[in-house]
Sequence to fold (165 residues):
Amino acid sequence: MALLKVLIYPNPVLTQQALPLESFGPREQKLFDDLVDTMYHEDGVGLAAPQVGISQRILIVSPRAKRGEEEVVVNPVIYESRGQEIGPEGCLSFPGLTAEVMRATRIRVRYQDREGKPVDRELKDFFARVIQHEMDHLDGITLIDRVDFNQRMKLLSQYQQQAQD
Ligand code: NI
Fold:
């Protein structure tokens, strides 16, 4: 087990497009385990590989933050989404920040599991929100890109203020 360092905004890796993962060998299995350990260590419900400086399309989710319930989600694609809801979101790459973000309430998503096997699922509400947030990281989109201009300015000044304290 190894804990990885979570990158903090504005690290440039956080705004890059991540590449698909193509192999699922021992090196990748170790990375999945390290991501899982790091997510729980940081008290997160989700963690995307770019957040630890690895620009690949991998994320870990555990909506109830319960060890053993985590899922490894690789190369995910949302192919259907329904409903919209504004809700609070935090991000390990923006310590201390909470933003109100609009997300679909139901999604259908295809991805590969940690063995590379295809999965097709319908997810809703908080689980759907976590997946959408983490998937944004794979496209270099962060929390503050998902709010309007006024909220973004407010959040950024709060974030900078906090960094100085
Ligand atoms: Ni995040």
Summary: The pocket of nickel (II) ion is lined by residues 91-93, 133, 137 (CB under 6 Å).
